[in-house]
Write a structure and sequence with these properties.
By secondary structure, the protein is mainly β. 0% of the residues lie in helices and 56% in strands. It is globular and about 40 Å long. The termini are far apart.
Length: 117
């Protein structure tokens, strides 16, 4: 089982980034997938989820700005992030097998997102 994130970087406030997470080693189409983040000096925070049937869920702070999607043919989940704010700065991880909002059975290595002018 492997999850590999990409697409992070440095962006100015108000800018956009699109994160990708390539999954392998399991039947991707059958799994809920999650995006979580960890800001400097803080704990893990759930950001968004997408079901196998593509129902989507978001934490309040990103509603209307972030959009999660999945391409089951490519075994990839995406996080489109718009109107980025400095408080969105964090390492972003994709994950599988949620135990709680802060504990997941499988998690990728993460990709750094920095929002700064």
């Amino acid at each position: 089982v492997q999850l590999v994130e990409s697409g992070g970087g440095l962006v100015q406030p108000g800018g956009s980034l699109r994160l990708s997470c390539a999954a392998s080693g399991f039947p991707f189409i059958s799994y809920y997938m999650y995006w979580v983040r960890q800001a400097p000096g803080k704990g893990l925070e759930w950001v968004s989820s997408i079901s196998p049937g593509t129902y989507t869920y978001y934490t309040d702070s990103v509603k209307g700005r972030f959009a999660v999607s999945r391409d089951n043919a490519k075994n990839t989940v995406y996080l489109q992030m718009n109107s980025l704010k400095p408080e969105d700065t964090a390492v972003y991880f994709c994950a599988r097998d949620r135990v709680s909002d802060t504990i997941y059975g499988v998690r990728g290595q993460g990709t750094q997102v920095t929002v700064s002018s």
